[in-house]
Write a structure and sequence with these properties.
Layout: H1 2-26, E1 38-40, E2 46-48, E3 52-60, E4 65-75, E5 78-86, E6 94-101, E7 104-112, E8 115-124, E9 129-136, E10 141-149
Antiparallel strand pairs: 1-2, 3-4, 3-10, 4-5, 5-6, 6-7, 7-8, 8-9, 9-10
Amino acid sequence: MKRWIVMGFFILLFVVGCNSAMRDDAKSTALNADMPNTVKLANGELVYNLSGNWRAATKSSCGKTFDGTIAITQEGNLIVGSLQSGSYPVDNYDMIRGTLKGADIAEIKFNTRAGFIASDAEILNSGTVIDISTGLPTDNIRWDTTLTKEK
């Protein structure tokens, strides 16, 4: 019996370790000038070049889903994403406004029916995936959006 408990413990450690290693690989932490998808700012800082078309998929906590194409334009460390096509129920086509800091998004706002809402975001997979989590505290509604860069 003790042997099974010890084996179960080691299997659990292995699974947790593998999952942690895989998540760490997806999250980018350091940029270098040799990377093709970076841009050097006037102050010498490197940030991801997020310009281009991104496939967007959003799920809300109330069960609704939206998708579309968002074109991100970038000037220095400032990004704006505009809806090109899709089913997002917003009044204007601007969907994302944000500021980059190194390999991270320092600040981002996502457009919802309630207007632009401050959100949490993470750049993953060497700048080819962006996960955005938006919550509307007054209604307890949450939107989880994944942007995947189109080739």
